[in-house]
Specification:
This protein is an alpha+beta fold. It has seven helices and twelve strands. It has a single domain, classed as Jelly Rolls (Sandwich), CATH 2.60.120. Helices cover about 30% and strands about 20% of the residues. The radius of gyration is 18 Å and the shape is globular. The model has no long low-confidence stretch (mean pLDDT about 95).
C-alpha cells in the first residue's frame, strides 16, 4: 500500500503503513525497556508530574538506523519516510521512551499553579525543539527536528494519557517561524528569544484549530509535522486506578503504563527546519 501523506500536509499528522518487522521491533523495544527498569537504569530527573510521567529522553539503546539488538526498524517505515523527506535525514536519534501511569498528571512540588493548570487545561502544549531556558523560562529554538515519529508500545487507548494535537497548527507555526527568522543567519537563530511571540502564536492556534486525540489501533505508528502543536491529555480511565508511582518500584507497574517510543531525527541546517 502506498503511503498517503495528505493528512500530514493538511492536518499535520498521519498514521503510517507498516509491516511485520514493526511488530517484532515493538516486542524487542518492550523487552529492553523492562530490562532497563529492572536494572534501575533510570534517573530521578526523568520522573515528573508526581512520578506519573517518565520522560525517558534518549532512553532506548538503538543504533543510528533505529535497530535494537537484531531487530530492524520497519523497512516500510524507513523507506516511506526517506521517500518523503529525502536524504537530509542521515541518522536516527536514541529513542525517547515516554511512559504515563494512572493519575497523570499530578502536581510536582516545585511546579507552579499556573504551570499545572496549563498542563490540565492545555495539555502542556508545545512545539518540540523550542526550549524554555533559565528561571524565567525564556524560549529559544534549539533543536531542529525533521519530524516526530511515534511508535505505540502498550496501553495506547483513548483515555490513557493520549497524545493530543491541534490540527492545522503546523501551518500557522510554519509561517510564524519563517516571519521571525527571515534574514537571520542560520548560526544566529538559536540566540533569538521568541517567548512573547511564541505565546501569541500558540494562543492564536487555541482559537483557530481543533484539538484531536491520536488513538492508534493495533499499535499503528504515527508521524507528526515538526511544527505541530501537541501535548498529553489526562489519564481518564478509572479502571486502571489512580496512584503515584515510586520510581524505584515502577518496574512492577510497567504493565499499567501507557508507553510510546518517539524518534526525532534532526536537520543539521536550521534553514531546513524552517523552510523544508
Amino acid at each position: 500500500m502506498i503511503q498517503n501523506w495528505l493528512n500530514l500536509c493538511e492536518n499535520g499528522w498521519c498514521f503510517l503503513n507498516t509491516d511485520n518487522d514493526h511488530y517484532d521491533w515493538i516486542n524487542e523495544a518492550k523487552k529492553q525497556i523492562k530490562f532497563k527498569f529492572s536494572q534501575n537504569v533510570i534517573k530521578d530527573q526523568d520522573f515528573r508530574s508526581g512520578s506519573t510521567w517518565f520522560v525517558g529522553t534518549n532512553f532506548l539503546d538503538n543504533n543510528s538506523q533505529g535497530k535494537i539488538g537484531t531487530r530492524q526498524l520497519s523497512k516500510k517505515i524507513i523507506n516511506n519516510i526517506s521517500s518523503y523527506f529525502g536524504t537530509k535525514i542521515q541518522y536516527w536519534d536514541k529513542g525517547q521512551v515516554s511512559i504515563c501511569w494512572p493519575g497523570y498528571p499530578k502536581k510536582d512540588n516545585l511546579e507552579s499553579e499556573k504551570s499545572f493548570n496549563f498542563r490540565i487545561k492545555r495539555f502542556a502544549s508545545h512545539i518540540d525543539g523550542i526550549i524554555p531556558l533559565g528561571s524565567k523560562k525564556r524560549r529559544f529554538a534549539k533543536e531542529y527536528h525533521a519530524f516526530i515519529l511515534g511508535l505505540p508500545i502498550m496501553n495506547n487507548f483513548e483515555n490513557n494519557a493520549s497524545l493530543v494535537v491541534w490540527e492545522g497548527s503546523h501551518k500557522i507555526f510554519r509561517n510564524f517561524f519563517r516571519n521571525i527568522y527571515e534574514g537571520v543567519s542560520s548560526n544566529k537563530i538559536s540566540d533569538i528569544d521568541i517567548t512573547e511571540l511564541y505565546n501569541e502564536c500558540r494562543n492564536k492556534v487555541f482559537t483557530k484549530c481543533n484539538v484531536k486525540k491520536i488513538v492508534p489501533n493495533f499499535k499503528q505508528p504515527y508521524l507528526l509535522d515538526r511544527h505541530l502543536l501537541h501535548g498529553i491529555d489526562q489519564w481518564k480511565d478509572q479502571n486502571f486506578g489512580s496512584y503515584a508511582i515510586k520510581h524505584k518500584h515502577s518496574v512492577n507497574n510497567l504493565s499499567n503504563g501507557r508507553i510510546v517510543v518517539y524518534f526525532r531525527p534532526v536537520f543539521s541546517d536550521p534553514y531546513d527546519w524552517i523552510y523544508q
